[in-house]
């Protein structure tokens, strides 16, 4: 694990040391007021057997934004990335040498000011990073598309809150709803806000919908970044790949070059999704994130109703499948694309 | 400090041991997803020199509600209170033997499930309690009433969130605004929600307003418990004392027995407060909480405007002063009232 202490003198010398417990004063602010921010990244083995990270500079930039939002000390994101790369290079033997497998990396910053006074934690902090081998969350052909339970009376994030940042404080408040979803046979929650049932996120992932146009092209919609949505790296990459396809700059397996994918970041409501589905316009619903990459959504439950989406062999619809395969190929270094896959050695 | 571990076998044997660091796996959920809940309590020395807690059963009941909301393991609040009492009895020598001083007690439960998977933390947790000697936050005659900066574009809590529970996750998201308030010469934030500028809380305290009626009686208003407000023990005690006075069941020094205090838990907006102040109806604005007990509020800043409230000698208005003095007298065991002050020995 990587560890870097921060105290009033600044960031101390970084250390890579064996995985072991953290020793912290019980009055450390992280236990009481939760100034805790993190990132999720994945390292893959390239065809050359060397470890690679996927657009890691985006994660480090977001970690810095999260840290500032939580009043934790700022840091140099390029220097932090160098440390993470060094850790990955050293631990590359833990990356499973199998398709769709990687090493999940968790850079974390916690406030460690040893004082129960309620105040910003910009003077004492700990930056640490641990790694865990990770397999695919969704296995085409054997996994069932996700079932989401929509919560009308629970809200993940609010305008003026921290939904657009990766604060640990966004997560525990969602656990009770997650438990209820599991007890009712759903995998995750569909987070909404407002009386118009505006869709925010799918569990801890971004939410996307594919609609068919009469001219044969499709719309790829996802909620706009209005401050309640986490600006996901996978979300951004999916939008960029779809645009590159539509602009003729790349091809996506299984999607005709002539099939334009019109991306739109916009307000999406659950009643709209229900209506598109009833009209037969809705082709696919899926979620994306670092851990899962791309996962199809099969149904959304609300009250006693289940909105059931079109089914596809292997689970993925054609757009989600094409984007997923392309993303994984880039992540695993089998396809080079705009420097997204960054070697660590 | 008091420590009780929870694992899949249940709550382990409690331990009171010397204050020292906690040793925790770096994947513990508290560092990543913030399943952390706490209470603030104060122990006072009674006239007999013995330590007393103020309505501690209310804190333990709220800690249990917070734990359940954060999907931490449940516990027996009466058993937890016995442990806290034992700790206070043992550490009573740390209670400063001076008026308005006490021992601040911080019962805390953190989720310690050692796994970066995002899921409820009902299987591994740590209940610990530390104590810190504490003096008065507001000194009548020498302290300046609080200045609050109202934030229009930031919210502390929202419907469907966790504002009514004492989750650590409610606090760090507020630090950035607290820092801005401090940099602009304010002590804390005034938290509001919605376009109507509905008032929620004063920093980390409950908010109260006293209005004058034409018949000489007064209204004591505080935001209703709509799910965004922490149900404070001091808030509840103030409302109950005011009602007891109005019903003729007790007297409050400095308030005529004939001066009825009409309590109302209701929606209060900042424009209303401004208007009452301009009309000369507004007598006092104050905040309350365990650490501060009762603190007068002197002004509220919003944008470039300061709403300045009536000034009183020593800072407190008559209603806040009477309630504060009575509360402290009960807390310090100088006045017995409905079993609120509970000896620990």
How would you briefly describe this protein structure?
Chains A, B: Belongs to the class-IV pyridoxal-phosphate-dependent aminotransferase family. 2 copies of one chain form a homodimer. Chain A is of the alpha+beta class and 345 residues long.
Relevant terms:
homodimer; 345 residues; D-amino Acid Aminotransferase, Chain A, domain 1; D-amino Acid Aminotransferase, Chain A, domain 2; 9-stranded antiparallel β-sheet; 9-stranded mixed β-sheet; 19 strands; globular
Question: Could you walk me through the main structural features you see in this protein, from its secondary elements to its overall organization?
Answer:
The structure is a homodimer of 345-residue chains. The first copy, chain A, is built from 7 helices and 19 strands. Chain A is of the alpha+beta class. In chain A, the strands form 2 sheets. In chain A, strands 1, 2, 3, 5, 6, 7, 8, 9 and 19 form a 9-stranded antiparallel β-sheet that branches. In chain A, strands 10, 11, 12, 13, 14, 15, 16, 17 and 18 form a 9-stranded mixed β-sheet that branches. In chain A, a hairpin with a 5-residue loop joins strand 13 and strand 14 (218-223). The longest helix of chain A is centred in the first third of the chain and has 14 residues, at 56-69. Chain A starts with a strand and ends with a strand. The model of chain A has no long low-confidence stretch (mean pLDDT 97). The interface between A and B is large, with 58 and 57 residues. Strand 4 (22-24) of chain A pairs antiparallel with strand 4 (22-24) of chain B.
């Amino acid at each position: 694990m990587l560890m870097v202490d921060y105290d009033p003198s600044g960031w101390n010398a970084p250390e890579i040391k064996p995985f072991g417990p953290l020793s912290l004063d019980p009055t450390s602010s992280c236990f009481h007021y939760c100034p805790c921010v993190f990132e999720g990244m994945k390292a893959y083995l390239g065809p050359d057997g060397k470890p690679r990270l996927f657009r890691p500079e985006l994660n480090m930039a977001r970690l810095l934004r999260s840290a500032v939002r939580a009043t934790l000390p700022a840091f140099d994101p390029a220097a932090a990335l160098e440390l993470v790369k060094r850790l990955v290079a050293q631990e590359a033997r833990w990356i499973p040498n199998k398709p769709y497998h990687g090493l999940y990396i968790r850079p974390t910053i916690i406030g460690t000011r040893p004082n129960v006074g309620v105040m910003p934690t910009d003077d004492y902090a700990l930056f640490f990073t641990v790694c865990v081998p990770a397999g695919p969350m969704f296995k085409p052909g054997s996994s069932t598309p996700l079932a989401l339970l929509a919560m009308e009376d629970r809200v993940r994030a609010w305008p003026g809150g921290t939904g657009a940042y990766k604060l640990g404080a966004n997560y525990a408040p969602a656990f009770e709803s997650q438990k209820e979803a599991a007890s009712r046979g759903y995998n995750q929650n569909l987070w909404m806000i407002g009386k118009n049932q505006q869709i925010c996120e799918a569990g801890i992932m971004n939410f996307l919908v594919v609609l068919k146009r009469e001219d044969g092209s499709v719309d790829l919609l996802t909620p706009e970044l209005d401050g309640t949505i986490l600006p996901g790296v996978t979300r951004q990459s999916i939008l960029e790949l779809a645009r590159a396809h539509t602009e003729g700059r790349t091809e996506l397996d299984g999607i005709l070059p002539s099939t334009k994918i019109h991306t739109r970041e916009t307000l999406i409501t659950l009643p709209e999704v229900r209506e598109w589905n009833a009209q037969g316009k809705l082709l696919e619903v899926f979620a994306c994130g670092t851990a899962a990459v791309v996962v199809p959504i099969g149904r959304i439950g609300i009250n006693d109703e289940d909105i059931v989406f079109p089914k596809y062999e292997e689970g993925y619809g054609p757009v989600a499948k094409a984007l997923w395969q392309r993303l994984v190929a880039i992540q695993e270094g089998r396809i080079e694309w705009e420097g997204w896959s960054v070697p660590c050695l």
